Each structure stands twice: as structure tokens, then as C-alpha cells.
Amino acid sequence: MTPIKIIANWKMNGSHEDIISWIDYFQNNVEIKNQINCILCPPLCYLDTVKKIVLNNKLDLHLGSQDVYADLDHPSTGGVSGRMIKDLGCNYVLIGHSERRIHFQENEGILLGKINSAIKNKLNIIFCVGETFEQREGGITKKIIKKQLRILRGLPVGLISVAYEPVWSIGTGKIPSLESIEDVHQVIKSGLKDYFTNKKDIPVYYGGSVNLDNAEMIMKLDSVDGLLIGAASLDSSSFSGIVNKITAKK
Ligand code: PGA
């Protein structure tokens, strides 16, 4: 069975000191079992710090990057390539997060460049999709999600997973009904099967206001293979609590 993924997206938060105490708490309060993978996505500038702590303490934690740059054929000041991300010890990368689509104008062309860079460097892609509040109200959630997924057609199936993150749910404390999460996840899974010839089941994670109170019931849904957690992952005790609750049920 593919392990459940519990992913911490720290966004633009944290400091060297915070990271040391976060990991210290996690290490002393969580015993990770085989069926769960925890993936930390700190800011790029702290990837090396996290990597060193994880290696020195032989921790069962995986590393992910919140972003990657496309390989460009011109010099790129400030760019961080897929090769560099890999070199920093990451095996995962988030691509298509709505905050990047919206605030950094990441369109399909840009996303494809990032996807190609990730694939070339054998980084597992966590591709984020999700509808806005207006799109949900307008009844076009599934249409929007299918459109966002089209970019994945024909890519190497083993490196792809999807995170369903309704834009209106991120950081708001609101989540869709459980029926709606299950419904959209099923749409994603069946839609993706048409894109890949070997029909492998692509893991689909839920993200958007996941916390200690709702994580367990979301994870109980058949089509939820993991969680992508923002705000609640900043506090090591709530992230650890979520991991422990899910571990206890497995
Ligand atoms: P949130 O963020 O858990 O704070 O809603 C999730 C995300 O943006 O990945």
C-alpha cells in the first residue's frame, strides 16, 4: 500500500530557531509508522537547515520544496533550479499552488516549465488544483479542476500526485462538506486515469484549513490519500497531533 502523505507547507514562515524547536518537539512526540510519510516544505532558504537536522538525527522526515524554477535558456537571477532542489535533499515539490498562480501570475506555460524541470530531476510533483468561491457558486468546480489537470496528460505517472485545495478554503477555517471532498477527489482520480496509459491510481491529497479537529474525518474518506497542511503545520504540536491521530487509526 502507498503510504499516506502528510505534508507541511510552511509558506513564508519560520526562522532558524523556530525550525530547531519544531523538529525537536516533533521528534519527541511522534513515532512515525511505515504507512505514513511526513513531508516538510520549509521556505527554500531553510531547506539545508532542515536537511542537516533530519540527517544528523536520523529522522524519518522527507523534504519538499514549495517551488522550483523552470530551466531557462537565459541567465536567471534569483532562480533555483530542479537540480538545485534535488541537490538540497528534496524528493518532492509543490507546483501550481493557488497562491503562486494568483500572486505570481503562474500560468500554464510557467507551470509546464516547472513540471518539466521537476521531472528531469526525478522530483515527485504535488500538483495543486482548486476552484475559487465564485467558481464553486457558479457550479463549475469540476470543470475548472479538469481544466487545471489537463497539463498533466502523458507525464511520467510515478512522479505525479495531486492536491485538491479549494482556493476559498485556504487559510479561512472553512472546508467543503465531506461529500463534496469525496466527490471532487473521485473526479480527479477518474479524470487522471484517462491521461495515463497504465491507468495507475494517482494519489490525491486534500488541503485547505486542515486542523487537529477535522484531519481525522477528512482522512477517513476513501479517496483521500493524504493531507496538505498550511497554518496548522506551523505549530509542531498541532502537526504532531494530526500525525498521531492518523497513525492511531491505521
Ligand atoms: P491552510 O493552507 O492549511 O492554511 O489552509 C493550505 C495550503 O495553502 O497548502
Write up this protein:
By secondary structure, the protein is α/β, with parallel strands linked by helices. The chain has 11 helices and 8 strands. An 8-stranded parallel β-barrel has the order 1-2-3-4-5-6-7-8, surrounded by 5 helices. Helix 9 (215-219) links the parallel strand 7 and strand 8 (226-229). Helix 1 (16-29) runs parallel beside helix 2. It is globular and about 45 Å long. The termini are close together. The model has no long low-confidence stretch (mean pLDDT 95).
**Which regions contain 5 or more consecutive residues with pLDDT less than 50?**
none
Rounded to the nearest angstrom, the radius of gyration is 17 Å
Largest sheet: 8 strands, parallel, barrel
Task: Give the overall form.
Answer: globular
Counted beta strands: 8
Secondary structure topology:
Layout: E1 4-9, H1 16-29, E2 36-41, H2 47-56, E3 61-65, H3 82-87, E4 92-95, H4 98-103, H5 108-120, E5 124-129, H6 133-137, H7 141-149, E6 160-164, H8 178-193, E7 204-207, H9 215-219, E8 226-229, H10 231-234, H11 236-249
Parallel strand pairs: 1-2, 1-8, 2-3, 3-4, 4-5, 5-6, 6-7, 7-8
Helix pairs in contact: 1-2, 1-11, 7-8
2-phosphoglycolic acid binds at residues 9, 165, 170-171, 207-210, 228-232.
What's the short story on this structure?
This protein is of the alpha/beta class and 250 residues long. The chain has helices at 16-29, 47-56, 82-87, 98-103, 108-120, 133-137, 141-149, 178-193, 215-219, 231-234, 236-249; strands spanning 4-9, 36-41, 61-65, 92-95, 124-129, 160-164, 204-207, 226-229.
